[in-house]
């Protein structure tokens, strides 16, 4: 019989050490500085404005965590951190980490209270309208929408590659945020036209992003509230990281509205960090559901089987689940 060890338990319990070291590095712009070239500890310390007491420990901890490399006393980014955590590169995904550092880190400290009460614990929890407060602040909204691009970039590429877009002509991304999904899909499939549907406040951010990517002639913004307004009538509707924000009744309403907007043979793509059907292996999906507990009044994540059942109840004739990448999968419903 092998000897039991508390190492796994302690590693998980103290995992926030690792997380916060990375989040602080992103906040400080460490990877952006090193994208300019390797630097020694003292140069880095001065560039970042750090106290001399623990700067070296901080840099070496990031080496040990696999976020930096060090050779002959010079620190440099890894291939991954150089590509994904340099703010000057279009591949930057640190927006979601910036938001996590600014908001989620402190909110998750109240998880126990959320579990005991079932009540949201975000900074806007008292008002009971997380999205209303967020969308009312242009600066916070732009940061949030940019962060959503960070978590949508990978799934967007997989959706562009795996879904049979050749069979369709038009599409719209509902809850489009900055527009990462429309841009990625339109770039991969030049025959498509469409755009993004979101609250009117999103238009300037969306239009800027589409223009920057040279796609204003094929992608447009559809303003509206998906609970109050009809969805655009297109061949394919995409809902990414949307359904999990809402309670079951609201989820069913959104699926029904998508069904009504689609033609016969049209398709709905729902993608999330779907919980595995056995609810045993996709820890990220389960933790994301806890994040919805903290952030929203009634949101929760779900399994692919759950979503297929709701789609069939809404009238979709065919449904299937297809893995995208990492913890993300898509559920496809065909009317």
Automatic annotation (TrEMBL):
InterPro entries: COMT-like, COMT_C, COMT_dimerisation, SAM-dependent_MTases_sf, WH-like_DNA-bd_sf, WH_DNA-bd_sf. PROSITE patterns: SAM_OMT_II. It holds the Pfam family Dimerisation. Residues 108-316 form the O-methyltransferase C-terminal domain. Coiled coil: none annotated. Residues 14-85 form the O-methyltransferase dimerisation domain. One of its GO terms (molecular function) is O-methyltransferase activity. The active site is at 244 (proton acceptor). Gene3D superfamilies: Vaccinia Virus protein VP39 (3.40.50.150), Winged helix-like DNA-binding domain superfamily/Winged helix DNA-binding domain (1.10.10.10). Keywords: Methyltransferase, S-adenosyl-L-methionine, Transferase. GO terms for biological process: methylation. PANTHER family: O-METHYLTRANSFERASE CICE, PUTATIVE (AFU_ORTHOLOGUE AFUA_4G14580)-RELATED. This is Methyltransferase.
